[in-house]
Amino acid sequence: MTAVLPPTDQRALDLLKSVWGYGAFRGVQADIVRTVAQGGNALVLMPTGGGKSLCYQVPALLRDGVGVVVSPLIALMKDQVDALRQVGVRAAFLNSTLPPEGVREVEAALMSGDLDLLYVAPERLLLGRTLDLLSQAPVALFAIDEAHCVSQWGHDFRPEYGQLHVLPQRFPQIPRLALTATADERTRADILRVLDLGDAPQFISSFDRPNIQYRVAAKEGPKSQLLDFIRTEHPGDAGIVYCLSRKSVEETARWLQAQGVDAVAYHAGLSPRERNAAQERFLNEEGLIVVATVAFGMGIDKPNVRFVAHLDLPKSLEGYYQETGRAGRDGLGSTAWMVYGLADVVNVKRMLSQSLAPEDVKRVEAAKLDALLTYCEAATCRRQVLLSYFGETLPEPCGNCDVCLTPPRVRDATREAQMALSAVVRTGNRFGAAHLTDVLLGRDTEKVRAMGHHTLPTFGVGRDHDEKTWRGLLRQLVSLGYLAAGEHHGLTATAKARAILKGEETLTLREDTLAPRAARAGRDR
Ligand code: ADP
Ligand code: ZN
To answer: Sign of dihedral through CA atoms 34, 36, 39, 42?
Structure first.
């Protein structure tokens, strides 16, 4: 007995088998294909590697006319088109890399109905000429890939994407399918508005990547922590190490090489030839590590990346999710590993407060950074924190993150927080963590003398804890917004700090940053 499928579903499945050789649709793919094949609009939120392409490729073949795919990833279009042609799909692309005669050829094929799929860069689509051609050609659907680029709040805003409302205006009858792997509430709302998808069904897949183990640790000696991690857990594995600056990329890559680790540097300051070479090596060799800025990775599809390491903080939790998501696309166990410290938190906060961006943009960026820092400081399952940011609820702790595997103990840190905050306030809200720590520990330094801080009531009140503890506590106070980072690394108590100082609010923190001096005496002396 075989179940009888509705005719569209049967045809879709037949295509999937005959063209791509796959036996079944994954997850919500079948529902999306049915919706669009029948002429409906849709919004698709699916993590990277989830299988978004088939969601528009199959309906494009099922419907009459050409499926027009808008994509900002010009560098990938040729590969995508080549792959489609190999399985017999009539595909082409239009972007700035094409010579004039190439453009004419594609346009002719479009007008004579000889194309199944046409990939177009947004700036090319928006040309009056292209829009006119499309209004005369039979169009099966518009797929807007990387749809989060419409949003100013996203990390990838493209002005041309903001103009894509011409699609619903000029082609209201043609189905629109918006696809993205990143969309918080705000970005999602922007996509719906710009593409006029208010009534369209939304297909939201889980963002969970169960095979990725999430780990975050305090930065002590980042390079040797990294080397230790690679040697003990991922010897000979392919991985990506993200650093913030070109300089630290170069340094880290060179250092790894000197330690006998196969590593190559990648950043936007290299020539296109050098960047291509690094990329090719990474794709083709076993066990190469790329040390890179965030310039590396968009569109890189290497299934067996076994780890992604962050030596510096990403800008947002979305960025972190995207970058760590490049690990383990083959579904096998992989690690997302990160170290960060007080200086990182102070730095990113200061960069943000000094940025020249408009106030509302700065506010959004600050909120995004805070979400990341909350994740970093989490004393509960990291996967639960991460997924809840994407609007998803994981009912049970995951069992595959550092917090689940080695639960940190938490304790009431109100008293210590009051000490640290009052040291900040009494020294005038302008000193950095190093000096504040000296004051708390009662160290008689030249600077302490010169400022007269040895006479303050806070001088030496923190002797029960060690330096590392105070730095960890200050880091958490900055991360959680009780302290703000100002000029020259100076820390300032915020309005939020008042409730703690007054004893109206208590604070619970991870105990690993609050170890009593005695317990560590051996190491810290
Ligand atoms: P995304 O665009 O969401 O990152 P892709 O569309 O590139 O993901 O798909 C990721 C991988 O999964 C590709 O190698 C693709 O061939 C494969 N894939 C997608 N859907 C299926 C399916 N139904 N059956 C088998 N493989 C699939
Ligand atoms: Zn967990």
So the answer is: positive
| Nearest ligand for residue 207 CA | 1
Name the strand (E) or helix (H) holding 493. Answer: strand 491-493
SS3 265: strand
Structure tokens at 374: 């909350």
Ligand nearest to the CA of 80: 1
Q: Is the CB of 48 under 6 A from ligand 1?
A: yes
Q: Nearest ligand to the C-alpha of residue 87?
A: 1
From the CA of 49, the nearest ligand is 1
Alpha carbon 358 to chain centroid, angstroms: 23
Cα distance between residue 278 and residue 292, in whole Å: 10
Annotate 157-170 with DSSP letters as a single string. Answer: --HHHHTTTHHHHH
Give distance in angstroms: CA of 42 to centre of ligand 2: 32
Residues contacting residue 177 through CB under 8 Å, at least 6 positions apart: 32, 36, 41, 42, 44, 55, 56, 59, 141, 142, 143, 144
Can you tell me which residue has the tokens 């997302």?
Answer: 336
| Cβ contacts of 79 within 8 Å, gap of 6 or more | none
For the chain, give the percent of residues with pLDDT over 70. Answer: 96
**Ligand 1 pocket check: which of 13, 54, 79, 89 to mutate, most ligand atoms within 8 Å of Cβ?**
54
The answer to whether 242 touches 293, Cβ cutoff 8 Å, is yes
Q: Is 47 in the pocket of ligand 1 (CB under 6 A)?
A: no
- Compute the C-alpha angle 294/298/304, nearest 5°: 100
Residue 300 neighbours by CB under 8 Å, 6+ apart: 279, 282, 283, 326
| Confidence at residue 519, expressed as pLDDT on a 0 to 100 scale | 33
**Residues with Cβ within 8 Å of residue 86, at least 6 apart in sequence:** none
Most ligand 1 atoms within 8 A of CB, residue of 13, 22, 57 to mutate: 22
Binding site membership of 55 for ligand 1 (Cβ less than 6 Å): no
**Is 322:181 a contact under the CB 8 Å cutoff?**
yes
ipTM of model over 0.85: yes
Rounded Cα–Cα distance for residues 264 and 121 (Å):
31
Give the integer Cα–Cα distance in Å for 81 and 262.
33
Q: pLDDT digits over 361-371, tens only?
A: 788 788 888 88
Cβ of 326 less than 6 Å from ligand 1 = no
Ligand 1 centroid–CA 372 distance in Å is 29
- Residue carrying structure tokens 């994740």: 375
Ligand 1, residue 48: give the atom nearest the CA: 4
State residue 395 phi and psi, 5-degree precision. Answer: -65, -35
Q: Give 111-128 pLDDT, tens digit per residue.
A: 999 999 999 999 999 999
- Return the beta strands (E) in 341-429 as ranges: 410-412
pTM, to two decimals: 0.72
